[in-house]
Amino acid sequence: MFKKYILKFILAVFFIFSLGCGQGESQNPRLVIAIDATFIPMSFLNDRGELDGFEVDLIKAVAKNAGFDYELVNVEWGGLFGGVITKKFDLVISSITILEERKNRMAFSIPYLQSGVAVLVRKDIQDVDDLEKLAEIKATVGAQINTTSYYFLQKYEGIKIKTYEKFGHAVIDLANEGNDAVVGDSVQVNYYFNKNKELSQNTRFLGSRLTSEYYGIVLRKENLELKQKIDASLTKLLENGTVQKIHDKWNLGEFAVVPLPE
Ligand code: ARG
């Protein structure tokens, strides 16, 4: 009789103890990851209203490999860098080109994708085959503000740069003849060109990729341990073909290339 009670007591203690353990559960750090959902097919909201795309698949694979829990938050382009620096979130993945100037303020992972800028020009503007010519005729060219496309355009004196908060707005404006041409990351330019009938009918490409740029995941400079973990996971996923598989799934084609790990 007494033994029975002791047994019950021990079982109860175990039960309560295991509950307690359950609550602390995973030892994994929980990271807040920001992503701009206006960059199809890299990141966007799908029909169910969930974040989807190449970079969403990639960051999920990285998180799984590195063993951290995470939360994805949708943040517009203009808020990404400030937010990571002021610790609103820990990581950003949003087709962000690794630039020396940006490295002064933030850290980057190793590159996960090689891309570049591409230009769409209105067909009714004749004899234009390059940016020099667009500058000569003093064309109005659209780009998303503070992107490599915008910096690229600044090199051409004569071009009137029209800036947009969202890349999609620049192409809509092009379709409505609000500008003469648009510069953007090659993957997006190609996506809109194929998807939008007016664009495919009324514009043409000036070469599929005019520059070579590398995308990296952004984090705070002091997060050295996190950077190491992310770089190690990216190296694995680049080497074992996972990144290439995701590239194939989203049909990035010739517009972006999966690099070899450094
Ligand atoms: N790759 C370009 C840059 O880093 C454009 C990035 C724009 N990304 C975005 N999610 N809107 O400047």
Strand content: 15-25%
The CATH architecture term of the largest domain is 3-Layer(aba) Sandwich
Q: Give the oligomeric state of the chains in this entry, treating copies of one chain as homo and distinct chains as hetero.
A: single chain
Q: In percent, how helical is the residue content? A: 40-55%
Main pleated sheet: 5 strands, mixed
Query: Total number of helical segments?
Result: 11
Quick one: CATH superfamily of the largest domain? Answer: Periplasmic binding protein-like II
Order of helices and strands: HEEEEHEHEHEEEHEHEHEHHEEEHH
Q: Tell me the strand order in the biggest sheet.
A: 5-1-6-15-7
Shape category: elongated
- pLDDT average, as an integer? 91
Kindly provide the radius of gyration, computed on alpha-carbon positions and rounded to a whole number of angstroms: 24 Å
Structure description:
This protein is α/β, with parallel strands linked by helices. The chain has two domains: 122 residues, 3-Layer(aba) Sandwich (D-Maltodextrin-Binding Protein, domain 2); 89 residues, Periplasmic binding protein-like II (D-Maltodextrin-Binding Protein, domain 2). Helices cover 41% and strands 21% of the residues. The strands form four sheets. Strands 5-1-6-15-7 form a five-stranded mixed beta sheet. A five-stranded mixed beta sheet has the order 11-10-12-9-13, with helices on both faces. It is elongated and about 90 Å long. The termini are far apart. About 4% of the residues have low confidence. Arginine binds next to loops.
